[in-house]
User: Fold this.
Amino acid sequence: MTRVRMGTSAIVTIATLVLLVASPAWGNAKGKATSGSESVGSGSWGAAGSTTGGSPTIGTPFTLSWTVTILGVNPQYFKVVNTGTFNLSAETYTTTISGGPKIVLTACVGADWTQVLSGTCSGTQVSLGDSSSGATTASVSIPSGSYVSVRANATGVLSIGSYTTQVSVAVVRNQARAAHTTTS
Amino acid sequence: MANPARHAGATRRTAWRPLAVAVTGGALLMTAGFGVWASLNATAFNASPQSVSSGTLSLTLADNGAGFSSNITNMAPGDVVDRYVNLTNGGTLAAKALTMSIAATGSSALITDGTSPATKALTVAVNSCSTSWTAATGVCASSGTVTSLLSATTLSGLSSAQSLIAGSIAVNEVEHLQIVVTLPDQTETTTNGSAPGTTIQGQSADLTYTFNESQRNATTTDS
Assistant:
């Protein structure tokens, strides 16, 4: 009986000590805390060139290869994909080519270029500049997750040969959606 | 003729008699003495026990609208997200010194601002409404008074507790708080879909808000 009573007493004592050590705040009412958590994430903005059936070339300019023959050269078609999470209202295009013809970029907003002959656009055509004009900012809206269809056309004096064109697309903050205040 | 053995036994018997007499006498004296030294005692006590109890301090957090239960996503530079929570001092004791701290983990770009004043990392400000916030509109109802409790502070600056209310908070008082989360306006150029090396884009952080209050000042009561 004595051993049983001592065992029970020891258990109660140990349990009390454990509780006091585990939660010293229980011993007094001097301070109380409460907490809540949330996750905050930022979005992104950007665009890149892509073949009509492929994925955007992230981090590098989109490349077009041309071979000019005595028969001339056909236009090429590609798309500019919104790679961010914000809707874009404009982008800045820079087209370069080493020698060769002048390359003119034209977007078809609201529809895809029909790739027949020189191409047809049932939407609105918007110039994205050319290889002789340097950086060109075009007000082309591209929703998040969407793209715009682009035609690259070789014009001017067409010298027979092979050429490479690079199309770079830059997006600055103010070309993405405007800031807003959300209350909820 | 005398018997020497009997004489020796008589001598031993008479030897302890004085001791016995002394013990008996001492006992009698002590008994008599105690009777003289006895005093009267009186005791008083409250018939009904006095009850003494300690108070409680309780601080509870409840969302008002989305509150902290809904994540904030896809922030753009310049965006402001207002969230609303209610803090209730629900114990039996008044409180004082309400503070807030935020434990933030995740992207350092959102947490730590390398420049001062803050221009890049997230900031948090706290306002209170004397009535209650209408979460859907961000209006302090019934023409209540809006008070700024904490100006915009970076998350790194909120790792230690910041004072919201230095004074007292009454029992059952509810603090109607507006938590203003801002991603400061800033610009970056993304080229060919690739953000700059140090970017604010596509980042995330987990924020744990901790509110703390202390019990009112201890008092001495005379009554």
